Structures are given as C-alpha cells and as structure tokens.
Amino acid sequence: MDQANERVKISFNRQLEQGDCELTLKFIGDINDHMQGFYRYKYSTLDGEEVPYGASTHFDPANCRRAFPCWDEPNFKATFDITLITPKNLQAISNMPIIYENEYLDDKEWKITKFDRTPIMSTYLVAYVVGEYDYVETKDSNGVSMRVYAPVGKKEHGQFALDIASKVLPFYTEYFNIKYPIAKADQIAIPDFAMGAMENWGLVTYRETTRLIDPEFSSMESRQLVAIDVAHELAHQWFGNLVTMDWWTDLWLNEGFASWIQYLAVDKCYPEFDIWTQFVADTFAPFLVSDALKSSHPIEIPIGHPNEIEEIFDEISYSKGSSVIRMLHDYIGDDTFRKGLHNYLKEYSYKNTVTVNLWSHLSKASNKPVNEVMSSWTLQIVC
C-alpha cells in the first residue's frame, strides 16, 4: 500500500498474459463521516426529530477510491453496474434507473436494488444515495424523466428547481445539437454536503440549503441563484460528463465553460432575470481581484498529486475561465461557436480531451486563429 500516492500494488504468482482479463476484488469499506467518498449524514424531520441515518456519495475530484477499489482518474473511464442492499423503508437512488427491486433473501426488513448499467464514464461521476426522500417529477419536452428528491415533507420546495431543469435541459439539447445521453436527469438535496453541488451523471447532488426554496416566501435573488446552479450542473451533463478533461490540468474546460453557459441558458429561459448584468458583478469583477494577486495561477495549470486538485477549484478556473469563454464566443459569433461545440462534443463523446482539442474545432468552424488567441489568455497569470 502506497499511502503517499494513494495506490495499491497487487502482485500475482505468475506472469500475466497480454490481452483482456478480469480482476475481482473483495473488500470491506467504512461509511465515513467526512462528506467524502461514501458517507453518512443526519437530518431532521419537519417536527424537529433527528433521523439517525442517511448516506450519500461525493467522489469529486478523487474520492471514489474511498468507497471501492478503482482506477480513480478521469481518463480511466468505465461502465458501472451498481447494486445496493438497504433497509426496506429507505429510498435507494443512483445514476441510472432501477431495473430490479425486491426483498433481500426473503428478509422483510431489507431490499436489494439493482440499477441499469451506466454509460462509460469517469469514476468521480458515480453516485448513489440512501435515505428517506419524497420527490416531485415531470418529463421535459424531449421525454426525459426528471425528479427532484427532498427530505420527507419538503418535496414542494424542490418544485422550482424541477421547473428550471425542465426548461434548461431541452435548451442544452438544442444548443449542442446532441441528445441528452441517458434516460433520466434527477436532482437530490443532501442535508450534509461539502460542496454547493456535484454534477454526477443522471443524479446531481446539491446542498439542501442551496436547492430547496419555499415557493411562497423565496426572494427573487434566491430563485435566480437556484436557476444559475441548476443550469451549471446540467451543462456538465455534456461538457464534463459526456466529454471529460483528460486530467485535472484542464479542469477549467469543465468549470469555466459551465460557468459561462449557465448564464446563456438562464437568459434564454428566463429573460426577465436580466442575468447577464449580474455576470459582470458576480463573475467578471471578482476574478480581476484574484488574478492580480501573487497567489494567482494560469487558467491551465499542471497538476501532479491528487492533493493539489482541490486547490484549483477557485475563481480563476470558474470566473476567469467563464469570462474568456464569453470573450471567445463574442469573437467568433454564436452560430460558429455552436457549430464548433457540436463537432467537438460529437467527436469526443464518451472520451477525454485537452484544451487544444476544443480550440481546434472552434478554429475549423470559424477560420480564425483560436489557439493562438486563447493561449495568451489561458497560459498566463494576469489578465
């Protein structure tokens, strides 16, 4: 066991032959309390009673290894067949639809739930949740099944997020001209969640306090924040999940792009929000301050050890990244930009890419020197 590099070396008693093989590992893992990997959480009912159990995953960026042995890097994509054995009174939810659910070994207190096989995808996008949940549901205009799960008694507070998703997902389908890749697009509110949200394919997880809003007493600001967050995570279903950065050096490809197109989607679906005005105040201006500091870094920054990854989930990757994407979009025009994006997503579907792959497709679509122009913005520190 190499603790420093988070690796396990497995030795065999004979030489392995070249070709395909199957590796089966039996292991025992802990459900932890650290909001990473597969962890437990507590939550309260509407009458204040604390429920002592519930469990969720959070594998981004490199925490799938905390739940089960795997090649836990974004360019090692695989399909996943997930089966959960849980108390019968709890919901079991994962990336894909349920294909089988029944009593476990004739035990009336437990059940086994099997989910459909996932598309080929990176480990950090795997998700499963166990807990007491209600949900609101609908289908979008393309027939994609959508649910928002909330703790029991709070499902009405998920209706606005569901309304947003049912408009934004078809917008992305049309804008990218690529069908949403899987059968469902669920969202779930987690009481104890380290991040604001996580774009797990088919099961986006959110912190409960940022996703569930009271339909009668919520402010316009709260509704706009929910709209932006939902649009951000659904953008990742294509840009990040369908096509994934090869390594964390190109994290900004995921986050910078989603942080730009979230505004485009909300503006198209809810023009009354005048959301681009807020882009300047909430996204553009803050990164100018961060980028002027000595602690700043280029948008594209080499990452070596997994411990370094979380350091670049910052304003440079998100806010500066989205600002230069906005600049590029205006430089080559919307129609050309969409054409280049479509070709990029089509060529690299279910694969991994680096930044220059995107520049190449946008250059071909626009007949402009995108790589030369954009490298001066992404490879230097100051704006």
Query: Helix segment count?
Result: 9
Radius of gyration, taken over Cα atoms and rounded to an integer in Å? 21 Å
What is the name of the CATH topology of the largest domain? Answer: Zincin-like
Judging from the principal axes of the Cα atoms, what is the shape?
globular
Q: In sequence order, what are the helices and strands, one letter per element?
A: EEEEEEEEEEEHEEEHHEHHHHEHH
Verbal overview:
There is one protein chain. By secondary structure, the chain is α+β, with helices and mostly antiparallel strands. The protein is 33% helix and 19% strand. The protein has helices at 159-176, 208-211, 220-235, 251-269, 275-291, 315-332, 334-347, 355-366, 370-378, and strands at 37-40, 43-44, 50-51, 55-58, 83-87, 91-94, 98-104, 107-115, 128-131, 133-139, 145-151, 186-190, 197-198, 203-207, 243-245, 351-353. The strands form 5 sheets. A 5-stranded mixed beta sheet has the order 10-11-12-14-13. Strands 1-4-9-6 form a 4-stranded antiparallel beta sheet, with no helix packed on it. The N and C termini lie far apart (43 Å).
How is this structure best summarized?
This protein has helices at residues 159-176, 208-211, 220-235, 251-269, 275-291, 315-332, 334-347, 355-366, 370-378, and strands spanning 37-40, 43-44, 50-51, 55-58, 83-87, 91-94, 98-104, 107-115, 128-131, 133-139, 145-151, 186-190, 197-198, 203-207, 243-245, 351-353. It is α+β, with helices and mostly antiparallel strands and 383 residues long.
